[in-house]
Amino acid sequence: MFFTEIEKLAKRIASGNLPGKEAQIRMVSDRFKDRYFELKPNAQTREGAVLILLYPENNTLGLPLILRPEHEKGVHSGQAAFPGGKKDETDKDFIQTALREAQEEVNLDTSQVKIVGQISPLFIFASNFMVYPTVAYVEKKPILEPNPTEVAEIFFTNIEKLKNPATIKKTIISTPQYNFETPYFDVAGKIVWGATAMMLSELIALID
């Protein structure tokens, strides 16, 4: 089943018919829905990539997430995320960025990783970052180790849990600029919201 689902997912991504905004907006706060996708990159926008790593877990697709360390001034301090980061000049493309960052942050053995494709890029206006998500897979659950300077915790979930409507809840998020209610995925009590939830929403739409 796993490889069948991966093959279907690869074909859907390769077709170029990505759900993009239609799926992403489901996990956007009502406060920002009317203008989120009107905000565009600018001359100061940085570019980076994240890795969405799938693996077989019973009859579904498992995937790891990370929790960022708490930093006093960090825009994404303490948030759930995918492994990833800023593109280096030496990276030939965003796929290499995603793989390199995953190796650095969670000690992923990238020699075992097979690329499925890239889903819709997403502009994160809060940090002025354009993120390019790469979907990949490994043939068994990866053994990962957090880099303590970049990752506070590694945790796992799967597509079946994320597809369960009961997993999507709402909470109040407080930032230096705003207080607002937002939808999120409840993953073992952890709040997965924002750009990570938007990318997960598109992945689920592609698989579903």
TrEMBL record:
<dbReference type="Pfam" id="PF00293">
    <property type="entry name" value="NUDIX"/>
</dbReference>
<dbReference type="GO" id="GO:0046872">
    <property type="term" value="F:metal ion binding"/>
</dbReference>
<dbReference type="GO" id="GO:0010945">
    <property type="term" value="F:coenzyme A diphosphatase activity"/>
</dbReference>
<keyword id="KW-0464">Manganese</keyword>
<dbReference type="InterPro" id="IPR015797">
    <property type="entry name" value="NUDIX_hydrolase-like_dom_sf"/>
</dbReference>
<dbReference type="InterPro" id="IPR000086">
    <property type="entry name" value="NUDIX_hydrolase_dom"/>
</dbReference>
<protein>
    <submittedName>
        <fullName>NUDIX domain</fullName>
    </submittedName>
</protein>
<keyword id="KW-0378">Hydrolase</keyword>
<keyword id="KW-0460">Magnesium</keyword>
<keyword id="KW-0479">Metal-binding</keyword>
<dbReference type="InterPro" id="IPR045121">
    <property type="entry name" value="CoAse"/>
</dbReference>
<feature type="domain" description="Nudix hydrolase">
    <location>
        <begin position="45"/>
        <end position="180"/>
    </location>
</feature>
